Amino acid sequence: MKVVQQKNIITLKKALEQAEKGRYAIGSFSPRYTDMILPILRAGEQTKSPIIVQISEKELNRYGITPFEVGEVFYQTMKDENITVPTVLHLDHTKDLQVIKDAIEAGFTSVMIDASEHPLDKNINISAEVAEYAHSKGVSVEAELGMIGTTDFIETDHDEELYTDPDEALVFVTKTNVDALAVSVGTAHGVYKVKAPTVDLERLKAIRSLTPVHLVLHGGSGVPAEMIQAAMNLPNGGISKVNIATDLELSLLGALGREERMTNQECKALDRDKKQVGQAAVQKTVTDKIVNFLTSANRANEFEL
Predict the structure, then answer these.
(1) Taking the chain, what is the end-to-end CA distance rounded to the nearest angstrom?
(2) pLDDT, position 153
(3) 125 with 172: CB under 8 angstroms?
(4) What percent of the chain has pLDDT over 70?
(5) Which of 35, 80, 92, 273 is the catalytic position?
(6) Does 4 fall in a domain?
(7) What is the DSSP string of 164-176?
(8) Quick check: helix, strand or coil at residue 59?
(9) Checking phi first, is residue 138 left (phi over 0); if not, alpha (psi -120 to 50) or beta?
(10) Which of 7, 23, 78, 246 shows its CA 20 to 30 Å from the CA of 197?
(11) φ and ψ at 89, to 5 degrees?
């Protein structure tokens, strides 16, 4: 697939450098369905916010999509909608190197290797290999240290949670050369049904004091705004990317009067009116997150593109 690069389609590294300087976070929003890429990009454009569109390996499999389909719809929408804000196309949690290579070929500007279930040394070796490959293609790399829990298994295989060790974080980023690190500090993927969300700010401070790598908070859906903002506003720079997926799908399904998720093909087959109702609900949710949680609205003009 030949990708025509626009100057405002940037790497994750470039996006997070600016966000960290400005003490805000950029939302990494998962559409889960290709037709929901449009409302995410529209929300970013209308709020003048930098934006990240992401999808994980498990989401690709569960919703029946390929990285090439995501890339094609993303780039076409960027062109059709004349999106001008800084935008990243990111591959979230992925374990398969071939999926990572496909995403890079499809025009993703950032990829995440998740080898967090392995012992530290193996996680380092796998993540370093991906970083070397992706960097040779001009693509940023995110990795994970610790284990972020889950309630719905869409992102990860396990619900165990293992907090990130700050000393291990120093070793990890030094040896892997990754651009961003997803840290486990109390949040979880999915809907909070039993435990309440929490963010261990002292652990974040300790990680930040040992390493300058950009920090990522997964499991942003359902986390109170004050927790997110406290994590962003640490003295030496805190969280600069927050992943939000479940809240978007709940908005879509709620607007459609559905409880069960669809496949991507089922979503594409919705009649136009229903689809537009769903897209409006997703756009409203993304806008709310940008304005009230991430405080990234009106920051797009701070980027040098």
Answers:
(1) 24
(2) 42
(3) no
(4) 89
(5) 92
(6) no
(7) PPHHHHHHHHHHH
(8) helix
(9) left
(10) 23
(11) -110, 115
Q: How far is residue 242's CA from residue 211's CA, in Å, rounded to a whole number?
A: 19
pLDDT for res 193: 43
Residue 304: enclosing H or E segment and its boundaries? none
Q: Which residues, in sequence order, are bridge partners of residue 94?
A: 113
Pairing outcome for strands 51-55 and 180-183: unpaired
CATH code of 33's domain: 3.20.20.70
User: Does the active-site annotation cover 167?
Assistant: no
Residue 112: domain span: 12-302
Q: Length of the chain in residues, anyone?
A: 305
Residue type, 157: D
pTM: 0.92
The count of domains in the chain is 1
Rounded (5°) CA angle 8-13-18? 70
pLDDT in tens, 133-186: 999 999 999 999 876 544 444 444 544 457 888 999 999 999 999 999 998 877
Contacts by residues 72-79 (CB-CB < 8 Å, ≥ 24 positions apart): 72/1, 72/106, 73/34, 73/35, 73/37, 74/37, 74/107, 75/3, 75/4, 75/9, 75/107, 77/37, 77/38, 77/41, 78/6, 78/9, 78/41, 79/6
Query: 3-class SS at 244?
Result: strand
For residue 113, count CB atoms less than 10 angstroms from its CB and return exposed for 0-12, middle for 13-18, buried for 19 or more.
buried
Q: What's the rounded mean pLDDT across residues 178-198?
A: 68
pLDDT score recorded for residue 67: 98
Structure token digits, residue 78: 């960027």
Query: By C-alpha distance, which of 159, 290, 146 is closest to 229?
Result: 290
